[in-house]
Design goal:
2 copies of one chain form a homodimer.
Chain A: E1 21-34, E2 37-44, E3 47-53, H1 59-65, E4 73-82, E5 97-108, H2 125-130, H3 132-135, H4 139-161, E6 165-166, E7 184-186, E8 194-196, H5 202-210, E9 215-223, E10 235-244, H6 248-267, E11 277-279, H7 280-287, E12 301-302, H8 304-307, H9 313-320, E13 324-330, H10 338-349, E14 357-362, E15 365-367, H11 376-385, E16 393-399, H12 401-418, E17 429-433, E18 438-441, E19 446-449, H13 464-467, E20 476-481, E21 484-491, H14 496-505, H15 510-524, E22 531-537, H16 538-545, H17 576-581, E23 584-586, H18 590-593
Parallel strand pairs in A: 3-5, 6-9, 11-17
Antiparallel strand pairs in A: 1-2, 1-4, 2-3, 4-5, 7-8, 9-10, 10-22, 12-13, 13-16, 14-15, 14-16, 17-20, 18-19, 20-21, 21-22
Family (chains A, B): Belongs to the class-II aminoacyl-tRNA synthetase family. Type 1 subfamily.
Subcellular location (chains A, B): Cytoplasm
Keywords (chains A, B): Aminoacyl-tRNA synthetase, ATP-binding, Cytoplasm, Ligase, Nucleotide-binding, Protein biosynthesis
């Protein structure tokens, strides 16, 4: 490494360099021999430039270049030259120039990779994950990593500018009785005891507020040992924030500005603020979801009053037994066949709907098996309520409110996508607020905290602790983008009397509360300021910024749905000595382990 | 929270605010009642301001203030007033003003804390750690957290400006056979298998170089299950860096600039660059340490040639059997008593020295039991070699080079401190370079890698693989500050032939190498660029920036020497159900667990 250190990046060679001698470092993307002249598409992190070897420029260099193959690592020195007009490649940023090479050094050779290093390859994801180090060479993956790095920086810059202090909280911490399943770490020094990896730094960030730090943030790794879905990873990253002496009305606008800053700095998009707000009740009523995609309409419409006395027993019966009937209007789907409508019914069934009734308007007639149960007046009233016209399709679910919301909410999302109602260039943010504080747990026959037991109730609902705890609304909020929950948070309880009411509503005695939350309750007694915060999922946010639909596309070394790393083959066997030192044994029989 | 939100921080109230109405939020540091007027030292993250309650300003506020105690949380509104000249407090930044309070709200009360919230308290560290949330309220701890946040930001800003990309690497990864003891995490989905927490992102950062990322960094959490010393924590943070296409000669100056940037941005100190460099051999010879404190002299001096034939058999014998005799000159210690010299001998014995010989020059005489074995010429020669004068004390160790270095190196550090030779305002950086690549392992009767098996040898030493592998010097480097190793790194092997020579020197067959390093060796075959990097210990660096001598003073929630968190009481017991789900059991008997 003397002359070989690059003077310019491949993707940045431009007409300004014409006539200059440059040194480039990178990888061979493609090599072609045209009539004894060798053309190489030469790639580094920034892009591709064409380098040319001709015996006339330098015979030795040309001879070496004749032997290089894809993914060889080279250092080359040469002169930047304007391409002939007919050789200009408008698809390439550097397409007006090329580099005529006088010196070359092969820094390393390469086997033929298992897939081509370029975008939009059709390769099984398992293979990509096994050879992640090659997959990450592809420009779209490099862009994703750079975007992620930029997003983190934008978050930090904003938070630093607002007086937030970054604090690192422990990864080896204590297992908590509530919440998701913990990952455990056996302690060698304390036989029979375990650390837990944090599901979030919740506890520590509240303690930092008690410590008077006032504004905390951390881009924090969190862990949940749950069964994984496409949009979950066993370890994930959240932008974790907590503040003191601010109310929701100060915090939420600040968080909007933060997210707007991140979008501007990373992808140049202006996010309008303030974000609209929907109460939880309204979101569920209008969209059947607490994370609605508001880029399109097709809202859920309650028709219970219109069908309460109709002849269709399923509808009338649902209303009579405390349920409801709601519908959405699938514009322009009046031509759907019975088969197509039945398929939608099967889809709705996955969300708990016992049936999906439908009514299509086509050729001036009302289609569908339920049509005969309704009078012309009833049908007119339904059409009017749902703004249905000739050519439209109404889809009804009659059930308990939760089932109606789940099924019609899911149908709405599906149809919104399929009918092309969604503007994919749009970023539609909103806050969902006024979540219920408590949820009735049928199994345990008691209230449980919807968020966590330290979530602060709305001041005006405090009196409901005595009369109707289920109606108490929390000072909790979720930030929602395009149908995804980006994150959420709450103001926390800081007054002892409120905390006691909360524990009472949860059915905890003083002793039980102490046993479960121990030292945190102690901490609360030494001068706790009003505080609250939020946590945003960085992986999901970057996924949306990058326009991808899978978290694995924006994580350098992700895990599969079975929490495996296909590259390192983690998790794996360990030696008996390691387990002995940790005072544990596995309960797996040897024949099982072979599987 | 309406009027109560602060308009200015306590520590920032100044003469510019005189006459203005301000709102403050914070904690009661101290409350005094002087003739019916209440003075409160009111504290937030930024400092303290005096707030005054007088029935004449507002009776209600005064009555409330009469009941508040230390650590109560208040919001107050009042007018900033210039203090009377005799009431000015020059010790306080805000000491020229005070706030006359018209409104007060007690946001929360507080029990009496177990210790006073102020600097330089004399409290057992165990108590501080148990009540860490109160300990962190103390100004010096707040300063430490802010300094740490600032240092992280300075590292990031520098690295971002140099094209480094921040990448998050996994925490749930695979156990590696070499290195320190891993923390393990049982997998629920893969019974009998385990993840390991990373000792460093070494593997992943090299893979990112193979991925063509070119410049990577991460402020990374790392884990080692080792027996802890005062300056170790089971989880620690390192500034982890890797680059491609750069040689040591490009990387090291860049790292110097980075550290200089951090020192300038955090504590305003100008660090001169370039850093001096010492070879490992030179550092060991002159300072008896591979992390020498070069803020003072008192170098180790070889006198083997002068004493090879002397009558003192211990010296002559050591030289004759391949050992050496070295000495340091403790200036001005010629008056040490035999007892004092013997105590130094006991200290040296801890580092393996079988004895410490001494020779003092006092009252024109040569003191010490060994003096009689030396001729006047020999003594003159020793004095001259060590620049010893009347009043000095020479301390000798005769042994194998390692023992001589360890014992005299430790003595040098001890005496440097005790004799006040160290300028504690100084930051003396250096690089130690040219570490040996291999170390002979007596037990295993083979060479082992001093750093790791991918450390690149110096080009000019490659031929020694065939003849004398122990003499090969590595392209490895440690950054040293004031006797502490801040971090280290190396250029990595990227050529297959060099890697094969390395494995051969370590006694690995191809199959063994594959078994141990598996997919990493695969990865190396697909076009690996020349690369290398470094990792700096953030905890230690911040400790030195803060002028502290214990890592726990710069970590928000540290662990004790037995890897416990005294606040959360982690690690702890978990439920049998949790263990059953993970397919493990503990081998600890119940009576043991009670201990």
């Amino acid at each position: 490494m003397t002359w070989q250190y690059r003077t310019v990046h491949c993707g940045e060679v431009s007409k300004e360099h014409i006539g200059q001698e440059v040194v480039l470092n990178g990888w061979v993307q493609k090599r072609r021999d045209l009539g004894g002249v060798i053309f190489i598409d030469f790639r580094d992190r920034t892009g591709i430039v064409q380098i040319v070897f001709n015996p006339e420029y330098n015979k030795t260099a040309w001879e070496i270049a004749d032997k290089v193959r894809s993914e060889y690592v080279l250092a080359v020195k040469g002169t930047v030259v304007q391409r002939d007009p007919e050789a200009v490649n408008p698809k390439l940023k550097t397409g007006e120039v090329e580099v005529h090479v006088a010196e070359i050094e092969v820094l390393n050779d390469a086997k033929t990779p298992p897939f081509v290093i370029e975008d939009e390859i059709d390769v099984d994801e398992q293979v990509r994950l096994k050879y992640r180090y090659l997959d990450l060479r592809r420009p779209e993956m490099q862009r994703a990593l750079l975007l992620r790095s930029k997003a983190s920086k934008a978050f930090r810059d904003f938070l630093d500018s607002r007086g937030f202090v970054e604090v690192e909280t422990p990864i080896l911490t204590k297992s908590t009785p509530e919440g998701a399943r913990d990952y455990l770490v056996p302690s060698r020094v304390h036989p029979g005891e375990f650390y837990a990896l944090p599901q979030s730094p919740q506890l520590f960030k509240q303690l930092l507020m008690i410590s008077g730090l006032e504004r905390y943030y951390q881009i924090a790794r969190c862990f949940r040992d749950e069964d994984l879905r496409a949009d979950r990873q066993p370890e994930f990253t959240q932008v974790d924030i907590e503040t003191s002496f601010l109310s929701m009305e100060e915090l939420l606008p600040m968080m909007e500005q933060m997210v707007a800053h991140v979008f501007k700095e990373t992808i140049g998009v202006d996010v309008p603020t303030p974000f609209p707000r929907l109460t939880y009740a309204e979101a569920m009523a209008r969209y059947g979801s607490d994370k609605p995609d508001i880029r399109f309409g097709m809202e859920l419409t309650d028709v219970s009053d219109l069908v309460a006395n109709c002849n269709f027993k399923v509808f009338a019966g649902a209303v009579a037994t405390g349920g409801q009937v709601k519908a959405i209007n699938a514009k322009g789907c009046g031509h759907y066949s019975r088969k197509e409508a039945d398929d939608l019914g099967k889809f709705a069934a996955r969300y708990g709907a016992k049936g999906l009734a439908w009514m299509g308007f086509k050729d001036g007639e009302v289609k569908g098996p339920i049509a005969k149960f309704f009078s012309a007046e009833e049908i007119d009233a339904l059409k009017q309520r749902l703004a249905a016209e000739e050519g439209d399709l109404l889809l009804f679910v009659a059930d308990k409110p939760k089932v109606v919301a789940d099924a019609l909410g899911a149908l709405r999302s599906k149809l919104g996508e399929e009918l092309g109602l969604i503007d994919h260039s749009k970023f539609a943010f909103l806050w969902v607020v006024d979540f219920p504080l408590l949820e009735w747990d049928e199994e345990a026959q008691r209230y449980v905290a919807l968020h966590h037991p330290f979530t602060r109730p709305k001041d005006e609902d405090l009196h409901l602790f005595e009369t109707d705890p289920g109606q108490i609304r929390a000072q909790a909020y979720d930030m929602v983008l395009n149908g995804y929950e980006l994150g959420g948070g709450s103001m926390r309880i800081y007054k002892r009397d409120v905390q006691e009411k909360m524990f009472k509503a949860l059915g905890f005695s003083q002793e039980e509360a102490r046993k479960q939350f121990g030292f945190l309750l102690d901490a609360f007694e030494y001068g706790t300021p009003p505080h609250g915060g939020i946590a945003l999922g960085l992986d999901r946010l970057v996924m949306l910024l990058a326009g991808r639909n899978n978290l694995r596309e924006v994580i350098a070394f992700p895990k599969t749905a079975s929490a495996s790393d296909l590259m390192t083959d983690a998790p794996g066997q360990v030696s008996p000595l390691q387990l002995a030192e940790l005072n544990i044994t596995t309960t797996v029989k040897e024949e099982d382990e072979q599987e």
